[in-house]
Amino acid sequence: MSWLTLLDASFRGVPFQVESISDKGEKSLAVHEYPYRPGAEVEDLGRKARVIPVKAVFWGLSYKSGVEALVRALERDGKGELVHPVFGSVEVCIRSWEVSHDAERVNYATVSFEAVEAGPDNPFFAGQSARSLAEQARDALLSGLQGAVGGAASGLMATLGEVAGKAANFKNAVLAELDGLLAVYDEGRQVARTATAWLDMPLAFVADLSACVASAASTATSGAEALTGFASLSRLSAALPRLDISTGRTSGDYATGVNAYGAGWISGPVSDAVGKAEAVLAVRAPQGGTTAAPAEAPAAGSLQTPIARASAQALLLQTQTYCTAAVDTLEAELDEPRLTPAEIESLTGNARGRVRDCLDAVAAAWPPGRAHALCEGLRDAAQAMQQMGEAALNARPPLVTHLAATPGNFHLLAHRLYGDYTRAAQLARINPQVRNPNFIAQGQELLVYAR
């Protein structure tokens, strides 16, 4: 061993000199012995925690302060970092310690302590919780959208400033298109305009557009009859429609149904149902039946016009508004599940569809160099939205398909599956296709939690 390669020893940041240190290792063995049979079967159960006896020394006029600092570190609860002079950082817990003084050695003391390795060989608990993953995804989503909104706004203001120097008829046409874009969100002109000379004051148009989008969102979700959760987000989605960026006009709504982005249920006969209490029961929809078709994307760089860039800014603002509400709803699912898996899929699909439209609009309205910078944040946002949906789904047990063996109801089914009839409300929530919760036909297909 070369003394030149030793590390400076310390525990919880308190340095000390080492008189001696040793490492004791031991295996955990299970010895199986049998009567009238020599020897034994020995099962190696793996290495036990490493035990590290350390003898630290302090000397000099200030030795006492060093001893007291180390003792305070040893007395603290929990794990701590021991910097081993040979093997480096080791996470340990302290089992015992002893402070010794010798009358023949003035201003000198030794501190002997025994450290036990506290870190497992395999990081069993290294995985992140659903809450931690959701918080990271939320931050990535909002920061990605905010970066795209800010970058596009600065470019839009520069574009409108360039239009101010054009011919009068061209400026009037642009102003009419911009006013029509605001009318999509504020047709009754309830929001006061900060200026009418938007080409001379581009910042005023950006502010007015943001105010109109916020007003439309607020109106859709406000009032005494305001709904919460999935219904509220459906109303918000209707107030923030899909745009044709070439004209700045509405081109349709985003799908918000619970089966809009995946296979759902339809009404149909169950021929082998016993004792049916209703004419038809819910059965699986055929494959490829109800999936929202994406809108046709314009070619990249094909619409580099003022109204296209203003429409792209509007899409970014409304996507930011909807995604913020969606992540709030999905994050609340981690604490108290209220949505069905199909509703979570619908919220996630709606948000990702909006981000996809933003990507298409930005690519069409801006040259490749600027579009690439804006799209990077949007791609991060799309991935983060997917992670939010996964976190909300993974916060509960996995779903499996179950065929009812006998007629019954959700309370009886919950008792049979889990031994807990109070979980009937969970089963009713994830099976909205069952119109009569007091009657489940024999052979009816249901979704249930695996545990």
Description:
This protein folds into 3 domains: 115 residues, Elongation Factor Tu (Ef-tu), domain 3, CATH 2.40.30.200; 231 residues, no CATH class; 50 residues, Membrane-bound Lytic Murein Transglycosylase D, Chain A (Roll), CATH 3.10.350. Helix content is 42%, strand content 19%. A hairpin with a 2-residue loop joins strand 1 and strand 2. Helix 3 runs parallel beside helix 4. The protein is flat, with a radius of gyration of 33 Å.
Topology, element by element:
Elements: E1 10-11, E2 14-15, E3 17-21, E4 27-32, E5 41-47, E6 51-59, H1 63-75, E7 80-84, E8 88-101, E9 108-117, H2 130-163, H3 168-185, H4 202-221, H5 230-239, E10 242-244, E11 249-252, E12 265-268, E13 281-284, H6 306-333, H7 341-365, H8 368-394, E14 399-403, H9 410-418, H10 424-430, E15 445-449
Antiparallel strand pairs: 1-2, 1-7, 3-6, 4-5, 6-9, 7-8, 8-9, 10-11, 12-13, 14-15
Helix pairs in contact: 2-4, 2-6, 2-8, 3-4, 3-6, 4-5, 4-6, 5-6, 6-7, 6-8, 7-8, 9-10
